[in-house]
Amino acid sequence: MHVGEAGVHLERFLPAPEAARDRRPVVLVHGGSANASWWAPMVAALMTERPVGTVDLSGHGRSDWRSSYSFDTWVEEVTAAAEYLFPERRGACRPLPWRRPRVRRRWDWPPSSDSHPP
């Protein structure tokens, strides 16, 4: 599958016919410096009861490289992958919004009951 100029590698795993095929599919997405093959143990466990998809984000694993990268591009890739892998669920797959985690200073942990976020 292509998103823009880059080919994005996908894999789809379906449960055995006797398993509950009406369960919602899940698409597993790796983090930085990783690839979809890292999910192999999780795929084996999940596909016993639901469809599973994996995606190699551009610049990782078996996907193509881009001239530049952004989280917005990767969100677009994941959304396109979910709709490509599970077209019967088209429109039902929504990525969770990415949000930069709030970093606490070491001396703020654990927070007291009267503390407020910075």
Give the low-pLDDT segments.
103-109
- Biggest sheet character: 3 strands, mixed
CATH secondary-structure class: Alpha Beta
CATH topology descriptor: Rossmann fold
End-to-end CA span: 43 Å
Order of helices and strands: EEEEHEH
What is the domain total for the residues? 1
Give the tally of β-strands: 5
Structural features, described:
There is one protein chain. The protein has two helices and five strands, in the order ββββαβα. The radius of gyration is 18 Å and the shape is globular. By secondary structure, the chain is of the alpha+beta class.
Features:
about 120 residues; alpha+beta; Rossmann fold; 3-stranded mixed sheet; two-stranded antiparallel sheet; about 20% helix; about 15% strand; globular
Secondary-structure blueprint of this entry?
Layout: E1 2-3, E2 6-7, E3 9-13, E4 26-29, H1 40-46, E5 52-56, H2 71-85
Parallel strand pairs: 4-5
Antiparallel strand pairs: 1-2, 3-5
Short description:
The chain is α+β, with helices and mostly antiparallel strands and 118 residues long. It is built from 2 helices and 5 strands.
